[in-house]
Amino acid sequence: MATHLVSEVQHLDRNPPEIHYLMLEENDNKYYFRAGEVIGRGVASGGGEAKFDISSLLKMNGYETFLRDTDCEWMHEILINENTTENEKYLKVLNRCKLKNINI
To answer: Which helix (H) or strand (E) holds 78?
Structure first.
């Protein structure tokens, strides 16, 4: 199993501060996204995390806001492309992450 960081953005200017992230996880040639946020600092912090496949990510409430908060607007064109398979879409996102050298 491998985990790849697609994006992590800190919004320290917000009150309370927020960190939003998007990961791509692969396991035996199966992929899914793991998205989350941390709001606040220390013992007062909160947030959440969820796993999504492509179709559920596209249907997520606040999808456009999430893409903006994670600086992933570029990913939308990949995800909605009807000429590629779901696996090809994950691989395109993964290749973009590798080009940015942000694998973890």
So the answer is: helix 75-80
Annotate 15-70 with DSSP letters as a single string: SS-EEEEEEEEEETTEEEEEEEEEESSGGG-EEEEEEE-HHHHHHSTTHHHHHHHT
Q: Give the list of residues 6+ apart from residue 36 with CB closer than 8 angstroms, or none.
A: 20, 21, 47, 48, 49, 50
Question: Which burial class, exposed, middle or buried, applies to 73 when counting CB atoms under 10 A from its CB (0-12, 13-18, 19+)?
Answer: exposed
Give per-residue pLDDT as tens, 2-16.
888 898 999 888 888
Tell me which amino acid residue 35 is. Answer: A
Phi, psi of 30 (to 5 degrees): -115, 140
Q: pTM (2 decimals)?
A: 0.81
pLDDT tens for 48-104 read 999 999 999 999 888 999 898 888 999 999 999 999 999 999 999 988 876 654 444
